[in-house]
Amino acid sequence: MNRLTIAPRDHQDPTIFEVLLFKFALFCFTLLLTTITHAIGPYHIERTLPRFGQRGTTVEVTIQGAIIEEPREIIFFRPGIQAVQFEKLPDLPRRIGLAHGGFIKEQIKCKFEIEPSCPLGEHPFRIRFGAEISSLGTFHVTPFPVIDESKKAPDANNTLEKAFPVLPNVTIQGQLGSGSRGEIDLFRIPAKEGQQLSVEVDSVRISYNHYGDSEFDLAVRILDESGQELATNDDNPLHLQDPIVSLKLSYDGLAYVEVRRSVFAPRNTIYCLHISENRRPLVAYPPGGQAGSKQIITLLGDPTGDYEETIDIPEKIGRFEYFSGSPSSLLLRSSPYPNILENQTALETFVDKLP
Questions:
Q1: pLDDT band for position 7 (50/70/90)?
Q2: Which domains does the chain have, with CATH numbers?
Q3: Which parts pass through the membrane (predicted)?
Q4: pTM of this prediction?
Q5: CA quadruple 156, 157, 162, 168: dihedral positive or negative?
């Protein structure tokens, strides 16, 4: 039997110089490709200030980013807001570099006209230019009047004596500065026995970057007149890192709301604080119903107890927001099928028929 033997070819491993040369060439190519991609788009929105506006009002908004000159219009993905009166602002005196490779240099100003019937919550948008559209930006709509407290001095309201006075049913735009490890913001509210006091903080959900340290991870406390803690929250199942707390007051006088960091990071931290007298459920059961029907849902987690509401399920299949008087929503679902709820008093739950 004949055997075929193949002689091995001469092979030389690449030298260290060749490896380094190849890596350098690959790096240059990647850098060139990134630069070209960034130069041709998309145009970047990096910050939108302020982050909130009350429905039924007109809000002056500044949008910052890169390559956002000469906007033609702003395209909103939900109804209720129209952008008008665009104006080019001077470039920032010093360009701000960002961890993802982008930067903030240019800024424009416009006005957001918010309709009285505008849906609450987050409104994504893009800027349309001559032949391009920008990356995604967001703006939020609240049912309450908005107070801007973010431009105060760092120690302006960090004690009970210097607490910022507000009335309930308000949205406060605030900022924790970068200089003090233990900086806090305090707000003073008139308290009445039997009154419900609900407090929600938006920080992670409105932050303009989602990387790096945990500077947007905040905590909130409700204090009595002497500074004793009545309620506190850091994380929760509904808003995750954004705190939410609610209680029923047992006295007349004053109550205080304290906002502070959970984890210190030496950066300015923006937040929006909603203080209201509404109920604040955390869960709805069942979490939706059949499209086009009326559904009785039980709202759970409010400190005054569980309660029921009858809601109209939208015809459109999918998730929808239900606010129940709160500044933020519970996510429910519209389904093509009727609900079958578990019989909690029996070992089995029988289903009469399948759809």
A1: very low
A2: 44-141 (2.60.40.10), 146-276 (2.60.120.380), 283-335 (no CATH)
A3: 20-41
A4: 0.80
A5: positive
